[in-house]
Structures are given as structure tokens and as C-alpha cells.
Amino acid sequence: MHRPPITRTTLAAALLALLTLTVTAALLVPTPHHGTAARPTCTGRTLASWSVDPGPTRAFAHYGDDGARTDDWTGGDGTHSVRLPDGRTLWLFSDTFLDRVHPPPNPQGAPHHWRTTENGGTPFLRHNSLVVTDRSGTPERTLTGGGATAPGPFFPDAPGGGWRWPVHATVEPRTPGAAEQVVRVLLWNRAPGTGPWIFGAPHGTEVATLSLPDLHLESITPVVDQSTVTDPARRVLYGTSLVRDGDRSYVFGGDDPPSTPADSGYLARVPTGRLGDRAAWRFWDGAHWQPDAGRAVPVLRGAGRRGVGSAFTVVRDHGTWVLFTMDTPAGGAAGLRTITGYWSCSPQGPWHGPVGRLTPPRPAGPDPHHVAVYNPQAHPEFTTAAGLLLSYDVNWLGPPGTAPDPVVNGDVELYRPRFLRVRLAPVGR
Question: Cβ(194)–Cβ(228) under 8 Å?
């Protein structure tokens, strides 16, 4: 889940509406195994156990609290990552707070540090940023656009008042077989909207190309234009997850219907080295891979209280495809608590589950009932013997009609990623 800046009076209600749309569990769709064959060694995988990994959580907290600069990251959501060839890691955030962090204005009632401008006003919120960590995982710099006195988003806002949220990124050859490598970043282009689209109506998927090693933004190319789809609820944005399999990348995406808390998951396939080439994209239509995005059908269909969230994540584990998403909601903020998993022997399904559940810890906050968990994201490049690294975002959902600025915008315990180590095991063990 990501959120653009809006007025104080509408933020709480709008955030509640959007997060309600993203809560999930996956509905099984029996699709045939065309494209990627099921592997004989594929077995069901389930969430077996998990533990908190305080290292990366503390690293981002320390970096965000550092007041040496006034134009760097103090918090953000989205939390995708890609390991660079030289050992650094590039972290991609959607809406990002940029400013200083100060001691709490009321130590008796607010024990945590807070984000504010020098005069105590609301901190700068930009639509995206990048954070580079060194080989040890320590954040070392924030990448934004604009100038030092007026930092802007790294990926510039789209024409017509729209904006861009970065999702998954990958390192691939500039062209198939080339020795030179670049970073390709999938972007969600959203246009201004009203009502259920207060966080922006889906407009399309783009691919940005960044040079290596300097991470210079070279280009942004549209790859899936959805602006001609009349009903915004039927527009599909791709890039919530990308998994490389041999010489192809499988790109997962979803729609965003406002009338149901469940989204449907879709799938595209692109040859390695051609992610930024619209002509190379192929979409799963239920039986074949074909070039018309309008004929794509869900591989995970949303219906009623079941479906995927708009920010789910997919990894490979022992030959099996594993998907993490938010579990079925209990209603409102109370539903944004639990993560579950699904598995398949091919990216297009059928997907089996839910299997396993975990309820990650949340910061206490002034009103812990309204602290929500969302946007689970896997970081397989950091897998160790302790398990797969999984991040999640936290936010605050006050009662409708309340002004959340003092909490959402201020408390640094919120709106920063937290991390877990997740261990998978065969289903039934």
C-alpha cells in the first residue's frame, strides 16, 4: 500500500478505505500448466516459523533519526529491494518523508521521536525515494530529485498531476546477451482521482532504466497502458513482485476494485534483458501467453472476502512458487494484522492455500488498536540459515473523521519498515 499527500481532514478515512481494499487471502483458480511446466520436485511449502530480525529494522531507524541532513529519508513505505552487482543494495520506497527528526514535543505523552520541520510543521512528503545501503547493509545515502533546498521524488511526477510509485526492481543485461548491466525498476503510474480513487486512479505500468554503478535515471518507458480501460477498477498494474526463472522474468500484478476488499492477481512474462521493451511483454490469458494485456485473466481471482492484496510478494523456494499476502480481514484496521502464504508449482497456478499464518509485532503507539500491518515484501537476496527476510510496513488508522497527522506524520515508530526471518517447510510437517 502506498499513499500520496492529501488534506488532513480526509487522510484517515481515505487510508482506511484503501487499506481495506488490500487485505487478503488468495482464492484458488484452476488454470492449466502451460508456459512453465510443473517440476517433479515441486512440493507444497508453508510458513513453519518466524522470528523478528532487529538488525535491518534498527539500521533504517538509526538512518532515519540521523539529523545530519535535512533532505534525506526519515520514513517511507513500499520497501522493495534489489542487490547491485558491486554488493550494495538499492531500496525503493513510495511515499517518503524527508526532513529532520526531533525529540518528542511532549515527552510525558509521546515517548518517541517525531518528524517535523524546523518550525514544527508537517515534514516534507514526496512520492518516492531510493536509499542505498553498503555491502554490510548500512544505509548510506538517499537519492531524490530536485535540488538540495527543495528535494523532489527520484522518479519525477507524471504529466497531468499524476505520480509514480516504484515497485519491484531487477538487474538485467541492457539488451539480451549484453555484458553491460542496468537496473530496471517497475513503476506504478497513478492519476489524480476522487472518491474511492483518492489515492489515485491506476493509469499504467512503466519501466525505468538506471545506469550502473552511478544509478543515474536514464529513461522511463510505458509498458502496460491502462488509461483506455474505462472502469478504473478493471485496470491492472504490474510489478508488485518479479521472479527470474531461467531466461525469463515473471511479473505479477493486480487490479484494485473499490467495491471489494480483495484484488485479483495477474501475470506477465518478459525475456531477460527486455523488461523495458513493451513489444516483448506477454500476458497469461488462461491458456496461452499472448501480447494483448486486455485479454489477461486472473491467476488468483478476488471474490468477496478472498483474493490477493495490491502489494503481495512471490518467491521461489525448493522449486516451489510461494506467495505472501495479508490474510482475510476481520473488518477495518483489525483485519490488518496477519500474513499468510500460498504455493504453486508454476507461476500461473493453480495456487494452493492458505497455508500458515504469522502475526508480526506492531509498535504500541498511542492507540495500538489502530496500528495496522500491510505490504509484506520478500527480500530473497538476504536469505540466510535463519530464513527468508520479509519486511512489512506499519501505519495508523484512526477512527473515521479524525486528523491523523500527529500520529502518521510524526511518530517515527510508524511508517518505517520492520523485518522478520521466515522459515518454510513442506506442507503437513
Answer: no
Residue with cell 515534514: 123
Distance CA 256, CA 267 (A): 15
Do residues 132 and 59 make contact, with C-beta atoms less than 8 angstroms apart?
no
- pLDDT band for 192, please (50, 70, 90 cuts): confident
Residue 83 is predicted with a pLDDT of 98
- d(CA 177, CA 189) in angstroms, rounded, equals 29
152 or 399: which leads in pLDDT: 152
Q: What is the DSSP letter of 55?
A: H
Using the predicted structure, report yes or no on whether residue 24 has a pLDDT greater than 60.
no
Domain 8-426 has CATH 2.115.10: yes
Measured distance between the N- and C-terminal CA atoms of the chain, rounded to whole angstroms: 33
* Closest to 239 in 3D by CA, of 333, 321, 167: 167
C-alpha cell at 187: 513503476
d(CA 100, CA 151) in angstroms, rounded, equals 13
pLDDT digits (tens, 9 = 90+) for 59-79: 999 999 887 776 789 999 999
CA dihedral (130, 134, 135, 136) positive or negative? negative
Q: What angle do CA 278, 284, 287 make, to 5 degrees?
A: 140
Domain boundaries, the chain: 8-426
Q: What is the pLDDT of residues 305-337, one digit of tens each?
A: 557 777 899 999 989 999 998 876 544 444 578
For the chain, what's the residue count? 429
Q: Are 80 and 169 in contact (CB under 8 A)?
A: yes
Alpha-carbon dihedral angle through residues 398, 402, 405, 411, given to the nearest 10 degrees = -30
Q: What is the rounded (10 degree) CA torsion for 110, 111, 114, 119?
A: 60
Q: How many CB atoms lie within 10 A of CB 193?
A: 15
Residues in Cβ contact with 3 at an 8 Å cutoff, skipping those fewer than 6 apart: 11, 14, 15, 18, 77, 94, 95, 199
Mean pLDDT of the chain: 82
Helix (H) or strand (E) holding 57: helix 54-65
Residue 79 in contact with residue 59, Cβ under 8 Å? no
